[in-house]
Amino acid sequence: MARVAFIGLGNMGGGMAANLAKAGHDVRAFDLSADALDRAKAAGCLPVDGAAAAVDGAEAVITMLPAGTHVEAVYTEAAIPNAAPGAILIDCSTIDVATARRVTEAATLKGLLAVDAPVSGGISAAAGGTLTFMVGGTEQSFERAEPFLQAMGKAVIHAGSSGAGQAAKICNNMLLGATMVATCEAFVLADKLGLNLQRFYDISSVSSGQSWSMTTYCPVPGVGPDTPADHDYQGGFAAALMLKDLRLALAAASEAGAATPMGARAAELYEQLAAEGQGSRDFSVVGQLLRAPAA
Ligand code: NAD
């Protein structure tokens, strides 16, 4: 088993680091939060007093941080200067494609291997070791990263070259944001047309309008499987994080010259939710914005 540095022990990273320790790795853990470090210790990791101390002597350096600025700072100040030659740097945060490519290039110039490896699956998948990883990097980097990612997930997929993992993640989440809005919209219309909502679910979930947002994550309380909608939209995937991912997708679309009108409309609605103070609720709460009668 290997020595692994884990930096960023929040909602996602806490569970992921615990699973690496459970798999027998020697996990040196660092976070700015003392509470997060205490939880990592209780989960079998060794807390250390800085990112550089975590990276020192590690075969793999894993980061799970809020955004690109945090990743770039940790890579520049701690990971790249302190990593052992040949170490693999694995960033699992959701960040912009340009930063992902930039930090990988900087690592490669120092003789290190690096991949972007963002995840699909929320806090429960991080705790349960059932995340899906989409990985961007060279074949050699992917092969080095894969065994560490396998210990934290149910699927590890090589998306392509550096940045491809982040590209896959933001395209997937833009699709998710748009289908969730469309699913909520269909339920609101069905309701106004006098349809029984469970009956509409029974029909649509086996018809051509079916999607993950309908069948697995139904946004209507009391309809379909148990979802955050049945718990007053608590837990699940925060609307603020959906907004973050939509903004990343729109910025990438603008740079690449891609038309994303559905993604742009979904982002507007999630902006409105955040402005109304609902950013910490599950993203399926977006349907509540659509209930008011059209002007
Ligand atoms: P979080 O805010 O709970 O955790 C981030 C952690 O990073 C915090 O504990 C913070 O103290 C720590 N941190 C920040 N700067 C640091 C630094 N310089 N050094 C050390 N630690 C530092 O966030 P999260 O929900 O765990 O999400 C992490 C990443 O995963 C984000 O990019 C997010 O978009 C992505 N993601 C989250 C989910 C989800 O459901 N929460 C799902 C998929 C992907």
Structural account:
With 295 residues, the chain is an alpha/beta fold. The strands form two sheets. Strands 3-2-1-4-5-6 form a six-stranded parallel sheet, with helices on both faces. A three-stranded mixed sheet has the order 7-8-9. The protein contains twelve helices and nine strands. The protein folds into two domains: 3-160, NAD(P)-binding Rossmann-like Domain (Rossmann fold); 167-290, N-(1-d-carboxylethyl)-l-norvaline Dehydrogenase, domain 2 (Orthogonal Bundle), CATH 1.10.1040.10. The mean pLDDT is 96. The protein is 49% helix and 14% strand. The chain has helices at 13-22, 34-42, 51-55, 68-82, 97-109, 123-128, 139-150, 164-192, 197-204, 212-215, 239-256, 261-275, and strands at 3-7, 26-30, 46-47, 60-63, 88-91, 113-116, 119-120, 131-136, 153-160. Helix 4 (68-82) packs parallel to helix 5 and helix 8 crosses helix 11. It starts with a strand and ends in a 20-residue tail after the last helix. The structure holds nicotinamide-adenine-dinucleotide. Nicotinamide-adenine-dinucleotide is lined by residues 7-13, 30-33, 36, 51, 64-66, 70, 73-74, 93-94, 119, 122-123, 237, 241, 244. Nicotinamide-adenine-dinucleotide (NAD) binds at residues 7-13, 30-33, 36, 51, 64-66, 70, 73-74, 93-94, 119, 122-123, 237, 241, 244.
By CATH, the topology of the largest domain is Rossmann fold
The overall pLDDT, averaged over residues, is 96
CATH architectural arrangement of the largest domain: 3-Layer(aba) Sandwich
- Placed side by side, the strands forming the largest sheet appear as 3-2-1-4-5-6
Structural class: alpha/beta
User: What small ligands are held by the chains?
Assistant: nicotinamide-adenine-dinucleotide
Domain 6-phosphogluconate dehydrogenase NADP-binding: 3-160
GO molecular function: 3-hydroxyisobutyrate dehydrogenase activity; NAD binding; NADP binding
Active site: 169
Keywords: Branched-chain amino acid catabolism, NAD, Oxidoreductase
